[in-house]
């Protein structure tokens, strides 16, 4: 079922890479792979996490494409192949997460009428956070949503309960658009980046291959502003009363032992969503559930396929 159907290190035949300009003129890179059937099963907009590139998910896109779905994804502004926001080209920066939400809103407004339903919004990590926030704010109207290891809380690290305050202090000591740290996905840790993301060495190596062969799409550490705004957006989203008004069916996949973000924050928030199916993974899964070793990835894809079959219906 979940066996790779494509070369993970090549854009599949039939897929297109285009450009999309947001209303403010900001340039974004877009992946689009239309279903081969005359009547597609539906359409998926998949959004990755901080620093992600859509090339990392080609294997998973192939799984959905084979099932008859149109699959689209775009790199968030300031990262991947989209226009950068700081002179430090590899630094993932944004002034306010509301900028991401506007991009998602405006892209959806053009994408939805051009793609048949049911329309499914999916988001991994930061993409999951932004997808849920967009649902709460009512700026997108999918028929179903899938949140994969959603970034709904940060690991507190050495500063414990004072982590947000420490980020504001440290970020304010200089230009907040500067990189918050030098390397890795998480500061103050002895864990390797690979171990934080996946137990599958080959799938991890795919990302490194793409970065080596297309260095312009590589994104390094976040800026201090990204970190500060992330704390704020997580805190405000968790307390947003509009979560209780979301009527879109949601599947949430959580890596409870996630070493990168706080999986417990997602588990705590899930009960506030009216129509939620929660699936939790244990120590067998690191952060990138859809790029994990086959036992985890296969289970995740099965859960998504079942959810889409049961709940993703065009309105």
UniProtKB/TrEMBL annotation:
Protein name per its UniProtKB record:
Alpha/beta hydrolase
Boundaries of every Serine aminopeptidase S33 domain copy? 39-294
Q: Name one GO molecular function term.
A: hydrolase activity
Q: What UniProt keywords apply to this chain's record, in alphabetical order?
A: Hydrolase
Q: What is the superkingdom listed in this entry's lineage? A: Bacteria
Q: Which InterPro entries match?
A: AB_hydrolase_fold (IPR029058), Hydrolase_4 (IPR022742), MAG_DAG_Lipase (IPR051044)
Q: Which residues cross the membrane?
A: none
**Organism, as annotated:** Sphingomonas agrestis
């Amino acid at each position: 079922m979940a066996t790779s159907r494509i070369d993970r290190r090549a854009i599949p035949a039939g897929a297109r890479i285009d450009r999309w300009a947001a209303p403010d003129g900001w340039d974004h890179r877009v992946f689009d792979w239309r279903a081969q059937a005359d009547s597609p099963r539906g359409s998926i907009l998949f959004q990755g996490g901080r620093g992600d590139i859509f090339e990392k998910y080609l294997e998973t896109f192939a799984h959905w494409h084979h099932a008859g779905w149109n699959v689209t994804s775009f790199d968030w502004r300031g990262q991947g192949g989209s226009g950068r926001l700081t002179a430090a080209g590899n630094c993932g920066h944004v002034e306010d997460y509301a900028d991401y939400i506007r991009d998602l809103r405006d892209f959806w407004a053009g994408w939805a009428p051009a793609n048949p339903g049911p329309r499914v919004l999916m988001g991994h990590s930061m993409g999951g956070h932004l997808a849920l926030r967009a649902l709460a704010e009512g700026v997108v109207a999918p028929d179903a949503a899938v949140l994969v290891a959603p970034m709904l809380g940060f690991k507190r690290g050495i500063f414990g309960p004072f982590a947000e305050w420490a980020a504001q202090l440290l970020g304010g000591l200089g230009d907040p658009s500067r990189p918050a740290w030098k390397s890795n996905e998480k500061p103050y840790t002895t864990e390797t980046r690979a171990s934080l993301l996946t137990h599958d060495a080959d799938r991890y190596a795919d990302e490194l291959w793409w970065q080596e062969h297309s260095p312009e799409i590589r994104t390094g550490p976040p800026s201090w502003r990204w970190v500060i705004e992330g704390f704020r957006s997580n805190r405000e989203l968790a307390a947003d009363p509009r979560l209780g008004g979301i009527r879109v069916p949601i599947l949430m996949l959580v890596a409870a032992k996630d070493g990168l973000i706080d999986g417990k924050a997602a588990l705590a928030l899930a009960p506030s969503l009216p129509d939620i199916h929660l699936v939790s993974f244990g120590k067998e899964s690191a952060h990138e559930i859809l790029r994990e070793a086959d036992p985890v990835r296969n289970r995740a894809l099965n859960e998504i396929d079942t959810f889409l079959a049961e709940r993703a219906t065009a309105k």
